[in-house]
Amino acid sequence: MTPFSILDLAPITEGSSISQALENSKHLAITAENCGYRRVWLAEHHGMQGVASSATAVVLAHIGAATSTIRIGSGGIMLPNHSPLIVAEQFGTLAALFPERVDLGLGRAPGTDMATARALNRDLNAAVEDYPAAIQQLQRYLGTRQAGQSIIAIPGIDTHIPLWLLGSSLYSAQLAAQLGLPYSFASHFAPDQLITAINLYREHFRPSEQLQTPYVMAGVMAVVADTDEEAKFLFTSVQQQFVNMRRGLNKPFARPVDDMSPYWSASEQAMVEHTLQYALVGSKPTVEAKLQRFIEATQIDELIVSVPVHNMAARLNTVEQMADIGSLQSN
Q1: Which residues contact 199 (CB under 8 A, 6 or more apart)?
Q2: Whole-angstrom Cα distance, residue 133 to residue 313?
Q3: Under DSSP, is residue 47 helix (H, G, I), strand (E, B) or coil?
Q4: Angle at CA of residue 148, ends 144 and 153, nearest 5°
Q5: Strands 163-167 and 302-306, sheet pairing
Q6: pLDDT tens-digit profile of 184-240?
Q7: Given a cut of 70, is residue 328 above it in pLDDT?
Q8: CA distance 237 to 256
Q9: In contact, 280 and 325? CB cutoff 8 Å
């Protein structure tokens, strides 16, 4: 059986509020825990009117307090936005509050537009080589205290929080392999290099203190409903979101629409359908068949599922239906 996890962006839906978005994330995590998902991750994005998880560690404390067994973590923290010491202290605090439940997924993209990235004090001219060094620095802050170590993360030191590398490129695959870390590929919005990146990671993996054999997670969006038509209707929310991003529009997560044809151009439709080609959208039998093909093609060790649904009841239903489908995969 392939383990399932949840990726949540704490969507701020059209007609709702940030407070409601965070409350929804809590209920999503509770449902995921009850359904047997392995972990729930929150993503760091800044300045987006449809995303409430910018202060990722704070939201994870909210999620951790509402659950008891499911792992919680970042999918991911954009490390160049932060001092590694600050990240170590924040996640070390989470590890003290929720022992043996915390993951730290890392990425190197800004998670925002360039103006907001500058406001985060991100060094936009930093070399790519700075990212591996920052990861290794973070490992030292979270690892066993060494003799003569002058900078100590408290909380953080001796927590040994497992690190993950997240990415959508061959660079991230190579780096995860080199450092011997688990690797999560963002195929839910960046499909093109999925198979190549996974193969590269497995081929070049070097065992580390944290991980002895390669471990690959890949992301999909999922919308499950009673019928294919209903699921396609619900999926128009995220289709609108991707059109808005292409147009440079910053909007809350949209209500679904009956017909996308007045909303997008032919080129926009082609872009969205290509970008979201791995999305699992349909009735339970339809999604089960698509999921089986995805797992067979990738041979992933774990699946992480994003549920881009405006209506909360329908979002929770997808989480529950995907859990049922996951159990079918083991038969």
Answers
A1: none
A2: 43
A3: coil
A4: 50
A5: unpaired
A6: 999 999 999 999 999 999 999 999 999 999 999 999 999 999 999 999 999 999 999
A7: no
A8: 5
A9: no
* DSSP strands (E only) in 151-242: 163-167, 183-185, 216-224
What lies within 8 Å, CB to CB, of 175 at 6+ separation is: 131, 132, 135, 165, 167
Could you tell me which residues come within 8 angstroms of residue 100 by beta carbon, excluding any fewer than 6 positions away? Answer: none
Q: Which amino acid is at 94?
A: L
Average pLDDT over residues 135-148: 95
**Measured between alpha carbons, how far is 146 from 162 in angstroms, rounded to an integer?**
18
Helix axis angle, 84-97 to 130-142, nearest 10°: 40
Of the CA atoms within 13 Å of residue 21, those in its CB half-sphere come to 24
Tens digit of pLDDT for each residue in 54-113? Answer: 999 999 999 999 999 999 999 999 998 899 999 999 999 999 999 999 999 999 887 777
- Cβ count near 273 (within 10 Å): 13
**Can you say whether the dihedral through the CA atoms of 295, 204, 159, 54 is positive or negative?**
negative
What are the distances in angstroms from CA 252 to CA 16, 50, 127, 295? Answer: 9, 4, 33, 32
Instruction: State whether the Cα torsion 11-12-13-19 is positive or negative.
Output: positive
Q: How far out from the chain centre does Cα 162 lie?
A: 15
Question: Quick one: how far is CA 256 from the chain centroid?
Answer: 23
Instruction: Indicate the range of 114-123, 149-158, 207-216 predicted with least confidence.
Output: 114-123
User: What is the C-alpha to C-alpha distance for residues 13 and 116, in angstroms, rounded to an integer?
Assistant: 22
**Residue 102 host element (H or E):** strand 102-107
Cα atoms in the 13 Å half-sphere on the side-chain side of 141: 25
Burial 195-206 (b: 16+ CB within 10 A, else e): eebbebbbeebe
